[in-house]
Design brief:
heterodimer, A: 320 residues, mainly alpha, MetI-like fold, 2 domains, 13 helices, B: 294 residues, 69% helix, elongated, membrane (chain B)
Chain lengths: 320, 294
């Protein structure tokens, strides 16, 4: 058991290290001289020379990579080319704002989808199931920018209750940002809910067909007890995994949704960095997203193991 | 990731398998019909569109639906209906190219590592995991920053981003086939890996690959439209659904159709692909639901 955890930790670290190499390579693949590519054709030779020095371009690539990774480990992610400020501070501030959306999204999506998924599973092939399954199919078929646009039309224009655009800067307090969180979170949550509903529905159908449910029912356990004791936990467990797998996609959705609502989070920062060709900033955001993804998957694996005794013992058997 | 491609029931062969699945599943049928209709419209758009999709007409800008313009006009007076009819061409072309490439690459790599196993399997899957850990939109934005947003760049980048996920699924399916007797027999006969791959393994996981294709295609279209929406895809004035929503979003109270029409077009296409994937996977017994959106 312990050695399984250790092995899983090691493989997570290895994946992060590998993806850092990939990110670095991708951004170093700028054709021609990186400095003049960033500055464009009209740059003066002095400006190019300054940037070359700033990016340490005279050093070999592997040395720059090691310096970057070494810095990243100690919390120094370099200096933004656009603002001249340390990248870590800027990303940190925006990350806090994005986490606010992410937490709201995940909480709402998970609660809603587990309830809907269990309902659909229990009423399999009857109208609640048809309705819920149909809606989740539509939910996973429309991109975030569409959901966001429709939400703005409904809740900011037709019935103006929530702001369509965030006017606060990145350093606004959480209290100031809170009213602006709901629409972006809803836009992100739709697709996520749709996926978890489908998962939960299948799990519930599987479980309810299981022998122990028949036993429980025959034992005289009420339907409600059967649902809360067997159906709900079984629907909850796989959602852990879906959330972890969806983190990568959530980051992408965040870019789109933050752009629509002008929300000062990592997604907006990333788009700015793309427009400014701010390589240190892009590198940092990509590395952080990859790390978050790997850690979430690690947590989901370990969590599933802790919650599911069957998985735990199988791993032990496998290791012997 | 359980690709259960091994429950062979006799009806294999790509076309017969597909037809069999279609006969048994209304869902798959409706889905494929929706996709086919979209392909047809995209192909015939220049013939059936009542107006040019890029022609400006400032005198008729922001007009509501009427006889001359069935779905109204946008802020430049361009005919919304014609733009919607043309609007799938870029997304469909790029998405189709990227999906074919990703599924082909992923299938070959997945089969090879499943057959070979050992250190090669370990190494390749490690790298694939690393690629998977970088969110697709983010990876594409990085690539676009570095290489620009040309269609070829987008096709290659999207296919690279999605190859690892396909590889994982196909590898799991192929691992189910690899220990079977006919593969062992072929190995004992001394057949080469390529021949085993194409003659023994691939025909038995065709169903997994087909479902994978429909599913990936739906995600790729969503991704490509999102990129267009963000301004890293089709270039204005090219008609494209994602771009159209971005252009007309601010005028949604004045001419709602200019935003809603491309939304409906995009949604029906993706719903079609999802229905096809659902129907086919159910008919073939391939577990689709238990896959995240990577």
């Amino acid at each position: 058991m312990l050695s399984f955890v250790a092995r899983r930790l090691f493989s997570a670290l290895l994946t992060i290290a590998l993806s850092s190499v990939l990110i670095f390579l991708a951004l170093q693949a700028l054709p021609g001289d990186v400095a003049s590519q960033i500055l464009g054709r009209d740059a003066t030779p002095e400006a190019v020379a300054t940037l070359r020095e700033q990016l340490d371009l005279d050093q070999p690539a592997w040395q720059r990579y090691l310096e970057w990774v070494g810095g990243a480990v100690t919390g120094d992610l370099g200096t933004s080319l656009a603002s001249g400020e340390p990248v870590a501070a800027e990303v940190g501030l925006h990350l806090r704002n994005t986490l606010l959306i992410a937490v709201v999204t995940i909480l709402v999506a998970v609660t809603l989808s587990v309830v809907l998924g269990v309902l659909a599973g229990l009423y399999r092939d009857r109208w609640p199931d048809t309705l819920i399954s149909g809606l989740s199919l539509v939910g996973m078929s429309v991109p975030e920018f569409v959901v966001a646009t429709l939400l703005v039309l409904a809740l900011s224009i037709t019935v103006p209750v929530l702001p369509a655009v965030v006017l606060d800067g990145p350093s606004a307090s959480i209290g100031e940002l809170l009213p602006a969180v709901w629409l972006p979170a809803a836009a992100l949550g739709v697709a996520m809910t749709a996926y978890i509903v489908r998962m939960a529905r299948t799990s519930v159908i599987d479980v309810m067909a299981g022998e122990f449910v028949t036993t429980a029912t025959l034992k005289g356990l009420g339907r409600w007890r059967v649902v809360t004791r067997h159906a709900l936990p079984s629907a909850l467990l796989p959602t852990l995994n879906v959330i972890a797998m969806n983190i990568a996609w959530l980051v992408g959705g965040v870019v789109v949704v933050e752009n629509v609502f002008n929300y000062p989070g990592v997604g907006s920062l990333m788009l700015q960095a793309v427009h400014n060709r701010d390589l240190p900033m892009l590198q940092a955001i990509a590395l952080i997203s990859a790390t978050v993804y790997v850690l979430c998957n690690l947590a989901a694996d370990l969590g599933a193991m802790a919650l599911n005794p069957k998985l735990r013992s199988r791993e032990q058997v496998g290791l012997r | 990731m359980s690709g259960t491609g091994t429950d062979t029931t006799g009806r294999r062969g790509t076309l017969t398998g597909l037809l069999g699945a279609l006969r048994g599943s209304t869902t798959a049928w409706v889905g494929l019909a929706l996709v086919a209709a979209h392909l047809l419209v995209a192909l015939l758009a220049p013939l059936v569109a009542p107006h040019s999709p890029v022609e400006n007409d400032p005198a008729n800008a922001l007009a509501g639906p009427g006889w001359a313009h069935w779905a109204g006009t946008d802020q430049y007076g361009r005919d919304v209906l014609s733009r919607v009819l043309h609007g799938g061409r870029y997304a469909l072309m790029v998405s189709f190219g990227a999906t074919v490439l990703a599924v082909a690459l992923g299938t070959v790599i997945g089969c090879v590592v499943a057959l070979r196993g050992g250190w090669l399997d370990n190494l390749v899957m490690r790298v694939m995991d690393a690629v998977l850990s970088i969110p697709p939109v983010l990876a594409l934005l990085v690539v676009v920053t570095v290489l620009g947003a040309g269609p070829l760049v987008i096709v290659l980048a999207v296919s690279l981003v999605y190859t690892p996920a396909v590889t994982r699924v196909v590898r799991a399916a192929a691992q189910g086939v690899a220990p079977s007797d006919y593969v062992t027999a072929a190995r004992v006969r001394g057949e080469r890996t390529t021949s085993i791959l194409f003659r023994e393994v691939l025909p038995n996981i065709v169903d997994v690959v087909c479902v994978e294709f429909a599913m990936r295609a739906s995600w790729v279209i969503l991704l490509i439209s999102s990129l267009s929406f963000l301004g890293f895809g089709a270039n204005p004035p090219t008609p494209d659904w994602g771009l159209m929503v971005a252009e007309n979003r601010t005028a949604i109270t004045v001419v709602p159709m200019a935003s809603l029409a491309p939304i409906i077009a995009l949604a029906t296409l993706v719903i079609g692909l999802n229905l096809a994937a659902d129907g086919l996977s159910k008919a073939w017994g391939v577990d689709r639901v238990r896959k995240g959106r990577a």
